[in-house]
Amino acid sequence: MTIKDWRKAFKQLRAKPIKMQKYIKHNQPKERPTGRGNVRCTRCLQYGAHISKYGLNLCRCCFREIATKIGFKKYT
């Protein structure tokens, strides 16, 4: 089976259901118990720049938008 073009690979796999099941079994993403890929923002569901302190679970952008509403003060 050639995999130069991914569309061609899936076209070939659709014709062979047993090989397709094996491909899906071995190439599906793993369930990650910990790490950056498991923690998401509760507002926008973004992965990066996560603030989990005080149980906020927000990304940096969402925190800046609602910080004053929650009671945080910005000191300059």
Q: What is the average of the pLDDT values?
A: 82
What is the overall shape? elongated
Describe the main β-sheet briefly: 2 strands, antiparallel
**CATH-assigned homologous superfamily of the largest domain:** Ribosomal Protein S14/S29
| Topology order in helix (H) and strand (E) letters | HHEEH
Number of helices: 3
How many DSSP E strands? 2
Helical fraction equals 40-55%
Poorly predicted residue ranges: none
Strand order of the largest sheet: 1-2
CATH architecture of the largest domain: Irregular
Strand content: 5-15%
Q: What is the CATH T-level topology of the largest domain?
A: 30s Ribosomal Protein S14, Chain N
**CA(first)-CA(last) distance:** 61 Å
How would you classify the quaternary structure? single chain
Tally of domains: 2
Rg, Å, rounded: 21 Å
Task: Please describe what this structure looks like.
The termini are far apart. Helices cover 41% and strands 5% of the residues. It is built from 3 helices and 2 strands; from the N terminus they run H-H-E-E-H. The chain folds into 2 domains: 1-30; 39-70, Ribosomal Protein S14/S29 (30s Ribosomal Protein S14, Chain N), CATH 4.10.830.10. The radius of gyration is 21 Å and the shape is elongated. The mean pLDDT is 82. It has helices at residues 6-14, 17-27, 60-70, and strands at residues 50-51, 58-59. The chain is mainly alpha-helical.
Helices and strands in order:
Blueprint: H1 6-14, H2 17-27, E1 50-51, E2 58-59, H3 60-70
Antiparallel strand pairs: 1-2
